[in-house]
Structures are given as structure tokens and as C-alpha cells.
Amino acid sequence: MIETPGLMPTEDLFPIFVNAMFTKNFLLIMFLGLCSYVGLTTNSDTSKGMSMAVTFVMTMSAILTWPIYYYLLSDASILKTDLTFLRTICFILIIASFVQLVEFIIRKFSPPLYKSLGIYLPLIATNCAVLGVVLLNIQEGYTYGASIIYAFAAGLGYSWVMLATAAVREKLIMRNVDLFSGFIGAFFAATMVALIVVSYFSVVKL
Amino acid sequence: MTEDLMSLLPPAIAVLGALGLAMAGMLVWASKAFHVESDPLVDALMELMPGANCGACGYPGCADFAEHVVAGDITPDACTSCDAETFEMIGELLGMDISAAEPMYPITLCQGGTNCKDRYDYIGADTCRAAILLSGTKKACSYGCIGLGDCVRACMFDAIEIADNGLPKIKKYNCKGCGACVTACPQQVLTIAKEHGPVYVVCASHDKPKYVKEVCEFGCIGCGICKKNCPEGAIALVQKVAVIDQEKCTQCGTCIDVCPRNAIVKL
Amino acid sequence: MAKKSFVGEIIRGIIKDNPVFVLVLGLCPVLAVSTSFANALGMAMAFTFVMLGSNIFVSLLRKQIPPGVRIPIFILIICTFVTMIDMMLEAFLPPMYEALGIFVPLIVVNCIVIGRAEAFANRNPVLPSIADGIGISIGFAAALMLLGSIREILGTGALKLMMLWSKDGELGFYPLSDIPGFSFVPNPIEFSIEPATVMVTPPGAFLTIAALMLLFKIMGDRKRMKQLKKEGYEI
After folding, report:
1. Is A175 a residue whose pLDDT tops 70?
2. What backbone torsions phi and psi does residue A160 show, to the nearest 5 degrees?
3. Measured distance between the N- and C-terminal CA atoms of chain B, rounded to whole angstroms
């Protein structure tokens, strides 16, 4: 029988926040969401747009999926059967539908934003970071409030790394060196940003 | 084990079915509530476009271009990025016969680069736009190519690079003739021309002859010998630099032979 | 269109269309799981299972799937296989399940699987789809194990070659030297270099993949330049 965590946060929120933003950063330490990371950090404007979209989708996904897991799938639910094996499919269903809804809304109310995000909007649905947040919320057994805060902090963590890498890469492009173009440059920039986090926050003893 | 299976099947189907129906219903409602009118022909054309948003057609993006093509403002062959296969498909879609226009590539109206002296040792942002701000540009000739690669960065097809002689070199197998590099050059020494045939004076320097001779090996000194010898009268002297009128030019090549500075080139 | 051979499709998946180094997709598990050879192998096997299952089923159903909702349906099919392998790993190989963590369920959003379903299995009959699946899986596995080996060798100074085997009735990942016939393989293979722990950490992962991509890019560029020179373009 799975114990359903409560709704209001009982855990220490500060460690959760710092973990999501730095020591267990989704992009650099957990390696989630890398496809959009290498694709979009050439330009700080697209990075900004994508970061906001991902943060929004992450938070909303956490809000929607937590109740589904604990009140529908777990054996503490009204159905009294352990359907937790359905979690992956249910979560992805909710996330994909939500992203599609967001796409409809953006297309209707802000065509320039829609044009600039282009193909990247539906790509958020298959972004490992979003599904990763949702799965980790369950794995860590967070309360509803804590899971929302964790998701939001994860989004912020994703955003700062995107913006920092965009800053590095835009400067790298200034150099006429073929070495730093495209994905290779993205990964070199990522190495630098990752080194900062790993050594400053003593994630691992180097 | 089959009892477990049978006991799990109904709730699993119920939950997944209910969730699926709920999401599908929500999306069906959303697609109607947030419906945006769009011409299916424009959408179909957009699918075929290369999507580079290079601006060669004169419109800010492929989406805009598709809209204007369907509206009849412009013909599809204005797109320099499409290859023959794509034009065939677009032609099929729109019911017209389209063939690619003659390929045009950028040329540099400057033979300076390493042939031209530097005015000073430049230490600063690695961009042409910054190097022209100080004291009449980093090169001794204020009108020539700086060679720091603003054109290279503007190219979205990886079709241009700065060669060892400090001048832009076009990789024709990638170049689509979109003209992004031409717009990006702060010295405006790049221009689009046909691949073979035209004759150009590859110098943009308006400096006095004595100065040009001092700083650049191939610069035009505005002596006017080409102008005198041109059988069509196609050459004019504009502030100490010769300019060939491409409309009048018959590409006979007389000017190339008489130029004392080797500043005229036939492509 | 020339008839493509089964083996030809497989080789294409490994080299010309290598999912990690050429298509640059599915990077998350590649970087996260390549901390050691054993983890890389485990992930590669799980991925192969999902890839083959998804390609076969999508190809079988390709005429029935309505185009407007094809992506959700692909995800549904892929998710079935992912849930299956997830539960199988949890039951039969708990240590590997612990090591791979959330990256097993995340195979469902792996761009490679969805990408190949959309680009290939949706348009081709079953047999070529199987070939494509095998090729892409081998390519993915090769990339993963290459990265895993490099990071393990440089990060710990030794390489532990492991393989899925059943020893005394227990299924698990055992050193290669335990398997009869391979006892000559040293376990672990020692390299006399000073280990650099950074290599098994995130910056090491990014650095390794950047270096490998650079290497392959240089090799590929050289080949392309030769090809273009032959066609007459001036370089």
C-alpha cells in the first residue's frame, strides 16, 4: 500500500530549491533536456523563450500529474488496485496534451511568439527534463506543494544554464574558429559551465 | 497469475481509457476554441520550402514568402535556396512551371586583404564592424575588406570563409546566393554576380593614386586608361575609382589588358 | 530507387546515420549512463529492445495510423515496450535497474526512437524497419560503449568488461572473465595512467563527447572534401 504524501509541504523547501537549481541541476548534472540545450543556446533570444516555456510546462505538469498518480494509479486510490505501472504512459499523455493545448493558445493569441518558437514548442513534450521532473517527484515522494516547488526550481535551473551557455556560445561564435561551431561548440561551452557548478558546489571531489 | 491479470485489466483499461478520452475531448474543444484561419495552400507550400529564412526573396521568412507567393505578389523562383527537385514539387503544387534562376554568387570588390597594409595593430572585438570605428579602419585603405569575418557569421549555409589572403572565399557548393553576406558587410565590398562572364573592377578605394600605390598592390588609382580604351564607353570614373556599367559591358576584356594595376577581373 | 539490402540498412544505421554522432539525437542517456562500460551495455540492451519493438509495431500498423494523431500513437506503442523493459529490469536485474535509474522510463521520449518511427518505420515495410532498428541500435550501443569505455579508463584507470550472463542460476552483469572461454580477459583491465576523476563527472562527459564529435567531424570533412574535389568543385 503506497503511502500518499500530504498536500502541504512538510519537507525543508530550501534544500529542494538549491538541489534543483544547482547541485542536482537538470541540464548539467542529471543530463536531462540536452537536445533543446544544444540546439537553442546559439541565440540568447530563443534561449529565453524556450526557458520560459519549459519552466511553465514543468510546473503545470507537476500540478497535473501528482494528483493523477496518488489518487488514480496508486493502490490507495478509489480503485484500490496498484496501477502504478501505467505511470509512464499516463504522465506522457498528460504532458503531451498540455503542450498541445499551450501550442493552440500561443498560436491564437501571439502569432509572433509562435513563429519564433516554431518547431521547438512541440519538442518540449518530448523533452526528457519535463518527464524527468515528474518521475523524480514520485521517486522522491514529495508532497504536492513540494513537488510544485521542485518543478518550478528545476525550470529555473534549466533557465539559468540555458542563458549562461547562450552567453558563452555567442561570444565563442565571435572567434572565426571552425572548432567552436555547432554541437561541438555547444559541448565545449557546456563543459565550462558544468565545471563551474561541479567545483563550486562541491558536487564531486575533483 | 491469470487471476492477477484479469483483476488488473479492467481498472487499467478504465483508467487509461478515461484519461485518454478526457485529454482527447479537451484537445478537440481547444482546437475549435482556439481555431486560427490559415490557407491550406500556404501551409502546403510552407512544407516544401527549405525553411532557411535567409531573406533572399526579400521577405523576412519562408512563411511570409509562401503567403506572398499564394497571393500572387511574387513568383516562386525568387527563392534561391530551392533546388531543382523542390521547384518541381512547388510547381506541381501551384500548377506552374518553375525552374531555378541562374546561380549567382557573391564576389568581393577588393583585392586587399594581405596585399593591403594595416594602419595599426588592432586589438579589439573580432568583428569588422568594430574595426572600422577607429581612425579610418584597421586597414590602410579605408574602403577595403577588413577580413574579420562579419560576412562569415552572417552566412547561414556555411558557404563563406576568410581565406589565407585575408579575403572572403565562397564555397560554391553550399552558397545559395541569398545575399546575407552582402548585407552584413559594413564596408559594402561584397556584391552578387553571375558565376561566369561579367567583368568587374575589384577595388572600391577612393583614395589618391599616390596613397593607393603605397598601401595596396592591386588597388585602382583612377588613372582612366580603362575608360579611354573601352569600346562601349561602359566605364565611368567615380571619385578616383573605375566602375563598369554591367548593362553596357560586352565583356570584351580590353580593360583587363590595359589596366596598369591588374585591378580588373573577369569572373 | 535502388533496392537496399538488409545488411546495407544495418550498416547505414551504424555509420552514415549514427544516432549519436551524426543525427545528434538522444543525448541525455548517452551522457548520463556512460560512466562505465557495464552501465553503457545495460542501457544499450534496454534501448535495443524498445527500438526493435517500436519499429516492428509501427511498421506493421503504418497503414492504419491516421496521420494527424501519429505522434501520440507512436508514443503509446513505444511506452508499452518501455514499461515492459522497465518492469523486466526491476525484476531480473535489480543492480542494473538501480544504476540506470530514471533513464529507462525516459527511453519513451528518446528522440531517436520517436524519430526513427516517424522517419522510417512509418513509411517502410517490416523487414527494412527491423534492419533499421538493428542498425540504429548497434550505432547507439557502439557510441555509448565507446564513451563509457573512454570515461571509465580515463576516470578510474581501469576498464571492467562486463556481460549479461547467468551464473549459478542468477542472471546479472558479470565480468567477462567469468564467462567460460573468456577467462583470459583480465578483470579489470588495468591501465598505467593516473586517473582523472573529472572524467566520470558531468564536465568530463561533455568534454569526451565534444572531443569525439570533433574527431568524427574532421574525418568526415576530409572524406567530403575528397568527394567534392572529385566532382570538380574548387576547394
Report:
1. no
2. -70, -35
3. 81
Contact (Cβ atoms closer than 8 angstroms) between residue A89 and residue A97: no
Chain A residues whose C-beta is within 8 A of a chain C C-beta are: 28-35, 38, 85-86, 88-89, 92-93, 96, 122, 125-128, 131-132, 135-136, 139, 179, 183-184, 187-188, 190-192, 194-195, 197-198, 203-206
Q: Using one digit for the tens of pLDDT, what is the confidence trace for A25-50?
A: 888 888 888 888 887 888 788 888 88
Query: Are C83 and A191 an interchain contact pair (Cβ–Cβ within 8 Å)?
Result: no
Q: What pTM, to 2 d.p., does this model score?
A: 0.75
Q: pLDDT, tens digit, for every residue of C204-216?
A: 899 999 999 889 8
Q: Which residues of B touch C228 (CB under 8 A)?
A: 173
Higher pLDDT, B167 or B67: B167
Q: Is the ipTM of this complex over 0.90?
A: no
Residue C1 confidence (pLDDT):
39
Residues of A numbered 20-49 whose beta carbons fall under 8 angstroms of chain B's beta carbons: which are they? Answer: none
pLDDT of residue A58: 93
User: How close, in Å, is residue B169 to chain C by CA atoms?
Assistant: 10
Neighboring chain C residues of B172 at a CB cutoff of 8 Å? 233-234
Which residue from A minimizes the CA distance to C90? A85
Contact (Cβ atoms closer than 8 angstroms) between residue A121 and residue A114: yes
Q: What is the pLDDT of residue A72?
A: 81
| Residue A85, C-alpha cell as written in the block | 505501472
> How far is the CA of B120 from the CAs of A136, B138, C231, in angstroms?
59, 6, 43
Q: Break chain A into its structural domains and give their ranges.
A: 13-200
Instruction: Find the closest chain C residue to A179 by CA distance.
Output: C214
Find the mean pLDDT for residues B37-44: 79
Q: Which positions in chain B touch A108 (Cβ < 8 Å)?
A: 34-36
**C162: helix, strand or coil:** strand
Contact B77, B98 (CB under 8 A): yes
Contact C15, C8 (CB under 8 A): no
Q: How far A88 CA sits from the closest chain B CA (Å)?
A: 11
Q: Looking at per-residue confidence, does B69 or A158 come out higher?
A: A158
Q: Test B153 with A173 for CB contact under 8 angstroms.
A: yes
Tell whether the model's pLDDT for residue C155 goes beyond 70.
yes
- B-chain CB neighbours of A86 within 8 Å are 12, 15-16
Angle at C15 between CA C11 and CA C21, to 5 degrees: 145
Is the distance from CB of C139 to CB of C25 less than 8 angstroms? no
Question: Residue C129's closest CA among C76, C77, C89, C69?
Answer: C77
The predicted pLDDT at position C2 comes to: 43
